[in-house]
Amino acid sequence: MKSNAGAGPENRSTARRVVPLFRPYRARVAAVVGLIVLTSTIGIINPLLIQAVFNKALFVHGGPNLRLLVILVVIMAVVPVVNGAIGILQTYETTRVGQHVMRDLRDRLYAHLQTLPLAFFTGTKTGEIQSRLANDVGGVQSVVTTTASSILANVVIFVSTVVAMVIISWQLTIVALITVPAFFWLTKAVGERRRRVARSTQESLAAMSALSEETLSVSGVLLAKAFGNQARDTTRYREENQRLADLEVRQQMIGQGFYAIVQSFLSITPAAVYLVAGLLLAHGTSISAGTVVAFTTLQTRLYFPIGQLLQVSVELRSSLALFDRIFEYLDVVPDIVDAPDAVDLPATASGGRVALHDVYFRYPDVPQDTLRGVSLRADPGQLVALVGPSGAGKTTISYLIPRLYDVTGGSVSIDGVDVRQVRQASLAAAIGFVTQESYLFHDSILANIRYGRPAATSAEVEEAARAAYIHDRIMEFPDGYDTIVGERGYRLSGGEKQRLAIARVLLHDPRILILDEATSALDTASEREVQKALDTLMGSRTTIAIAHRLSTIVKADVINVIDAGRVAESGTHDSLLRQRGRYASLYEEQFDGGRVQWRCAGGDVMTDGTIRQRQPQPQPG
Ligand SMILES: Nc1ncnc2c1ncn2[C@@H]1O[C@H](COP(=O)(O)OP(=O)(O)OP(=O)(O)O)[C@@H](O)[C@H]1O
Fold first, then answer.
1. Where in the cell is it found (predicted)?
2. At a CB cut-off of 8 Å and minimum separation 6, what does 26 contact?
3. For residue 507, which of 399, 452, 525, 594 is within the disulfide window of CB 3.0 to 4.6 Å?
């Protein structure tokens, strides 16, 4: 009772939101409705003709009326042909409307997802989002092409058939209609079960694609192999796969049960009609053979639509459930949006001052603050280093500057303007972000670099590649700049990927650079190339670097030691060493008192340029 009460209004409100999706196609929908009404009504012509054939042409006194018979037979042959042709047109129109609505919905969902903050994506499985975009929106199309048109067609068929039946014989009509309530009740029960299973199947499908997406990506495979977890992943997959297979079987069988009910009713009622016709004849009511034949022919048109209608109502419900899943995403209100009075950052060449003032930050659904009163600043052209233990909050600070998250307290400003008052496009233009993981699209090298500034010419792309010390390497590939890279493309080394990413940011040419120096992805040989490229990139830009290289740290105008969400110490390398505090111990531990420049995967790069081999260390956190 309670669940029914809940499902009703929810479905109704979903339906209320679905209807407007069709508004742009009003004229087409009207045409489709007209065509459906036409084809569904034409169907009663032939059974009525059968009655005429029997009573007026075949079995008449003095032998068959051949002239009339030929006319009737020709009409009977032409009607299905005409109906078929209209049916084709109707299917075409319905499919077009369905596809257009689906296209609009997908566009809207994709555009909406693009406006959602990073937090939404860190909190949702990628496979799940893709499944809603691909499977759910796809499933919705059936609402239009199959479900909606089927409902209308079957209602029209049912009503027109009942009307025709009454015209032929009202007594037999009562017999035919008497079983309808039982039929409704049975199929409704089957429908409820079917809906539940359909929802579980959809969830299982999403879980499967999330699982394969996670575990069969390059990083996922790497992780599974490194930890020897392939067997565990395989078991997880097998279990979910088994669940899916079971659900599919159940769904199929529920459908079969439904079909069996329709079939039984289809065969039982004609028999009852014959019986009642016999009784009527015995009691002196005249019923011709043509009437009985026409009636039983009409009857197939009566039960089939009821069956279809009930089945479709089940489908409609599961389709509405799909709509619910889509609307659920569309209802996520992006909390990081342009303020109504947002401004563009002034385009001054000397600008780029970044200031964090008493910043507090808490991740969604995390009980405690990750940043607790962080204040720091980077003046135009300065290099500001963030150092500190893992989990201290350095990456979090770097996310707040381009507004990937909003502060929960305090403020972040650029050139004196609070970032919440800056138009996001202007913010993105002013800030360049180099992360540890250089993400490359499955596309050519040229396209990947050009992503930094889509309007850039090939010459400008090449210039950026040269400045990032990657041009010569690109030219070694057989296809040069047209080489396909990324997930399924040419495999690049960590250092090469980083330099491509640096070229991309160089082309973007931001005033402010946020740099998360890679910790372990690079081998000792690429490290120097990357360092040179980074030096070019930093140039005279304001740079905030999460620094792991001693050279970056020593060179920094200001070093901020971040610890437990606070700035624990702040100053230059020399002044901080003199304080003999946290920085001094970090310098001793991580950089071996200045002897280690940079810790790579294969060993340590020493400040004198030599390499010191090292046992692999366990990954932090
Ligand atoms: N999306 C998130 N949701 C919830 N908590 C998060 C999220 N991202 C990071 N955290 C938590 O916030 C804290 C700070 O993380 P952050 O990544 O900023 O540290 P970090 O100093 O950059 O560390 P590292 O040097 O290891 O990258 C950590 O405790 C981390 O677990």
1. Cell membrane
2. none
3. 452
The partner residues of 413 in beta bridges, in order of sequence, read 355, 418
* Cβ 79 vs Cβ 42: under 8 Å: yes
Domain with CATH 1.20.1560.10 in the chain: 10-330
- ipTM of this complex prediction, to 2 decimal places: 0.94
Residue nearest atom 29 of ligand 1, based on CA coordinates = 391
Residues 6+ apart with CB under 8 A from 403: 336, 412, 419, 420, 422, 424, 427
User: Amino acid identity, residue 24?
Assistant: P
Q: How far is the CA of 80 from the centre of ligand 1 (A)?
A: 69
User: Under CATH, what is the fold of the domain 354-613?
Assistant: Rossmann fold (3.40.50)
Alpha helices in 283-353 (DSSP H): 289-330
How far apart CA 179 and CA 149 sit, in angstroms, is: 26
Cβ–Cβ under 8 Å, residues 494 and 522: yes
pTM of the model: 0.72
Give CA separation, 11 vs 17, 56, 196, 596, in Å. Answer: 10, 51, 14, 64
Query: Going by CA atoms, what residue is nearest to atom 5 of ligand 1?
Result: 363
Which of 116, 371, 396, 515 is the best mutation target for the ligand 1 pocket, counting ligand atoms within 8 Å of the beta carbon and taking the most? Answer: 396
What is the number of residues in the chain?
621
| Residue that the structure tokens 């020399």 belong to | 574
Considering the segment(s) 10-330 as one domain, its CATH architecture is Up-down Bundle (1.20)
CB count in 10 Å sphere of residue 55: 16
| CA angle, 372 then 374 then 376, to 5° | 175
Of 74, 83, 78, which Cα lies nearest the Cα of 38? 83
> pLDDT tens digit string along 159-207?
999 998 898 888 888 888 887 787 778 777 777 787 788 889 989 999 9
CATH 3.40.50.300 occupies which residues in the chain? 354-613
